[in-house]
From TrEMBL:
Record-linked Pfam families: PD40 (PF07676)
Protein name, per record: WD40-like Beta Propeller Repeat
UniProt keywords, alphabetically: Membrane, Transmembrane, Transmembrane helix
Transmembrane segments: 703-725
Source superkingdom: Bacteria
SUPFAM superfamilies in alphabetical order: DPP6 N-terminal domain-like
Xref: InterPro entries: 6-blade_b-propeller_TolB-like, WD40
Length: 797
């Protein structure tokens, strides 16, 4: 048969649907009347959209999420093979967001460059990119949004939709003179501009109906009485600014126009039968006819200069793909009008009933209005069609049909209308209401099972947030509690926090420890400044008190006070999948300092760097790399504890000794950094020092998709596997640090201060918890140790 088993199965399923589903049999799938160039099912993604075919028709630029992010690709229009990725989107400030739903891709007439509209930092911008060299030119304007760019045939101008103060218009930018002109400049919405071949006209879609000039807009026009949800095709003359209406429909949208080579016909998309299809209109005769009878919606048309190839996007089989239709103007259907879907048929019947009821209601309202001279509130003539909502059935009877005017008395607050009939304006008042109240149980390696109550309150706009966290144990001195307030309406998010933490440790000799209660309490002022979507700077100033008390003799103890400013630079464009991040990178650089202010204060300077990079190989297979390093200096410099994994259940620590000997150690452990993990194959505190470095490599893959146990009816889904290599070290002096050494001539080279561990593990969600099992071996460059088993909770790095 010359096809794969999957292709044969798909064809058989399609024929069965045509046999049993009448609507399916009357229409064609997109790949039945056009050539499929992309297939979202083969690469586990969903979007292949915004096609822009080159002037000669040999290449197509489009937007796809095939690599997790939305990127711009160039592919062959002949076989759909990817030529290159020309823009990496959603990763950097310049290409923060590609306008997926309002395609902004266009080719220069010579086919050497593309232009596209993107969100670039604080504003939208147009980027002109050389396809061969990938050199970029950024063009910005004083506009709030830029969409749907189209390059004129002479190569000198760009037409696009610009948004300013909530008003969208058609703009033209002259690439030679660097001038910008607003062509439409009115209150109506415009979209999809495309040049005519002679450059004298721009075709576009708009919701303006018959308001083709400002002179046509009456003085008493009110936008709230206007339906902006229906689009038609229009043209505008570049010189005279004269607008002409091309299509005329009452309920349906006509969008995405493209022009024939001779300028006598246009193609456009219309949903007049309930499905987006391609239609042709003869501009001389006014005759319209459908070119497709598609089973699924068609979007975003793009045509070659000679009109021989038409590219479009269609949503089919659970995703968007790019298709190519050859000789579209020569395509003929056996019907002049497409059969409407069931939805459209019922919609038209409902509209007829509504019109009849509206006419009756208008007569009654006119009669009632003639008997009244009272002041009516501003906007009282707004009509609301409640049939669009889920409770629509109760409003289908004439006795319950209503307008805001007829029910105004029951909906209006007393004394909220001024003398002119307008609603009074009141200042916004902040009123806090609870958003979240819940209790939570957690596990800590060193403290065991913990419980806490969490409460969050905010105002209606979310500009003010209050958090309360409590974990009461006997009395306040032995409990954890915190209060935080965040102020969020400005660019910088500000916060203030007060807290108290109590913990118990055995300090000193491992066989005869002294049990201490450590308390950390104080307050912090914090802020977060977003540079862009992917970068921010966090900063804070905290005042901390640390009290260490011997349980049996409370008079024996130690107290420290710390004033600590801190700053952290964060970059993150990573994407998460089921359990781990699978693509992108993230890193941070943190600095913490505390000056010597008195006899009870501690003095230090600590810096930490953490970098993580993720490579998605295919589907749920990925490779993760992490490198972190840090150091501390000063009179009370921090010592970093290296080894183990976080949230380790069956945990062990070197010499059964937790290296917290004073209030400074406890402060560093709680406020800056706990154990440096993961370093598998080793236990907690395998090494410690004022400096550290750790590298992790991990291959992550789906191990078992679905498994059902035999004796117990339990189903386990998506069990993930990992293969890892960890390498790290902690030390005090570079002079004495050695990665390898030879203990004797017979042993050979082995590791000394460098710790290496390798192994494999499993990840599974069980009863809402992410459980981890790792099996690791130490490696000293000459041999492997016995395996070490790690049972733990929580996500990986």
């Amino acid at each position: 048969l010359g096809m794969s088993l999957k292709e044969l199965s798909d064809r058989w399923m399609r024929e069965q649907k045509k046999l049993y589903w009448a609507d399916f049999a009357k229409r064609e799938a997109p790949d039945e009347f056009a050539k499929r160039l992309t297939d979202h099912t083969k690469r586990d993604h969903f979007y292949n959209t915004s096609p822009a075919i080159s002037p000669t028709g040999d290449k197509i630029a489009f937007i796809s999420d095939r690599d997790d992010y939305f990127d711009v690709f160039i592919m062959s229009a002949i076989d759909g093979k990817i030529i290159k990725k020309i823009v990496k989107g959603n990763r950097t400030k310049n290409f923060e967001e590609l306008h997926l739903l309002t395609p902004g891709l266009t080719w220069s007439p010579d086919g050497n460059k593309i232009a596209l509209a993107v969100k670039s930092g604080e504003r939208d911008a147009i980027f002109v990119i050389d396809v061969k060299t990938e050199k970029q030119q950024k063009i910005t304007f004083d506009l709030d949004g830029i969409f749907s760019v189209d390059w004129s045939r002479d190569g000198t101008k760009l037409a696009f939709v610009g948004l300013k103060h909530g008003q969208s218009d058609i703009y033209v930018y002259d690439l030679l003179n660097k001038t910008l002109v607003n062509l439409t400049d009115d209150i109506f919405s415009d979209a999809d501009p495309v040049w005519s071949h002679d450059g004298k006209l721009i075709y576009f879609s708009s919701d303006r109906k018959d308001f083709i000039s400002k002179d046509f807009i009456p003085q008493d026009f009110r936008m709230y009485n206007f339906d902006p949800n229906q689009y038609d095709i229009y043209s505008i003359d570049i010189e005279t600014r004269e607008i002409k209406r091309i299509t005329h429909t009452d309920y349906w949208d006509e969008t995405s126009p493209v022009v024939s080579p001779d300028g006598k016909k246009i193609l456009f998309i219309s949903d007049r039968n309930g499905i987006n299809n391609i239609y042709e209109k003869d501009l001389e005769t006014g005759i319209e006819r459908p070119l497709t009878n598609s089973l699924s919606g068609i979007y975003q048309l793009s045509i070659t200069y000679d009109g021989s190839k038409l590219a479009f996007s269609s949503f089919y089989n659970g995703g968007f793909d790019i298709f190519l239709l050859r000789q579209p103007f020569e395509r003929k259907l056996n019907v002049q009008e497409l059969e409407p879907t069931v939805f459209v048929t019922e919609f038209l019947k409902e509209k007829e009933r509504e019109l009849a009821k509206a006419k009756k209601l208008e007569q009654e309202t006119t009669k009632a209005g003639s008997d009244s001279t009272s002041i009516q509130p501003y906007g009282s003539d707004i009509k609301v069609n409640l049939r669009s909502y889920i409770f629509a059935d109760i409003f289908r009877h004439d006795s319950l049909a209503m307008s805001i005017k007829t029910r105004l008395d029951s909906l209006t607050l007393p004394d909220n209308i001024d003398e002119s009939g307008r609603y009074k304006v009141y200042r916004y008042k902040v009123n806090f209401t609870p958003d979240l109240i819940y209790t939570n149980a957690s596990y800590s390696t060193f403290y065991g099972v913990l419980g806490e109550a969490f409460m969050m309150f905010s105002d209606m706009l979310g500009n003010h947030q209050i958090y309360l966290i409590t974990s009461l144990v006997f009395d306040l001195k032995n409990s954890d509690y915190a209060f935080a307030y965040f102020y969020l309406p400005k660019r910088i998010n500000w916060g203030i926090e007060a807290f108290h933490i109590a913990r118990f440790f055995g300090v000193g000799d491992q066989y005869y420890p002294l049990y201490y209660r450590y308390r950390l309490y104080g307050g912090t002022l914090m802020g977060s400044y977003p540079i862009d979507k992917f970068r921010r700077i966090d900063f804070g100033l905290g005042y901390y008190n640390v009290v260490g008390e011997y349980i049996d003799f409370p008079e024996i103890g130690e107290r420290s006070s710390i004033l600590m400013p801190s700053v952290t630079y964060v970059h993150d464009n990573s994407l998460w999948r089921y359990i781990f991040p699978s693509n992108g990178e993230r890193y941070y650089i943190s600095l913490y300092a505390s000056p010597k202010l008195g006899s009870s204060s501690i003095q230090f300077l600590t810096g930490i760097f953490d970098y993580r990079k993720y490579f998605r190989l295919w589907s749920d297979y990925s490779f993760a790399f992490r490198f972190t390093a840090g150091g501390s200096t000063g009179k009370n410099k921090q010592r970093f504890m290296l080894g183990g994994v976080d949230a380790w259940i069956n945990w062990a620590i070197k010499n059964d000794y937790i290296p917290i000997e004073n209030t400074a150690d406890f402060f560093f452990f709680e406020a800056i950094s706990g154990p440096i993990v993961p370093l598998r194959g080793y236990v907690y505190n395998e090494q410690n020092g004022s400096k550290f470095a750790l590298m992790n490599l991990e291959f992550r893959f789906p191990l078992i998709r679905y498994f059902i146990g035999g004796a117990l009816p339990l189903a386990f889904r998506n069990i993930m596997g990992v293969i890892f290599l960890d390498m790290g070290s902690a030390w005090d002096s570079w002079r004495s640090w050695r990665a390898f050494y030879e203990p004797d001539p017979f042993t050979g080279t082995v590791t000394k201060d460098l710790l290496i561990g390798t192994g494999y593990g499993f990840r599974i969600y069980l009863f809402g918890l992410l459980l981890r099992l790792d099996i690791a071996w130490r490696f000293n460059w000459g041999s492997f140790s016995k395996p070490v088993y790690y049972f733990s909770f929580g996500p990986d790095y």
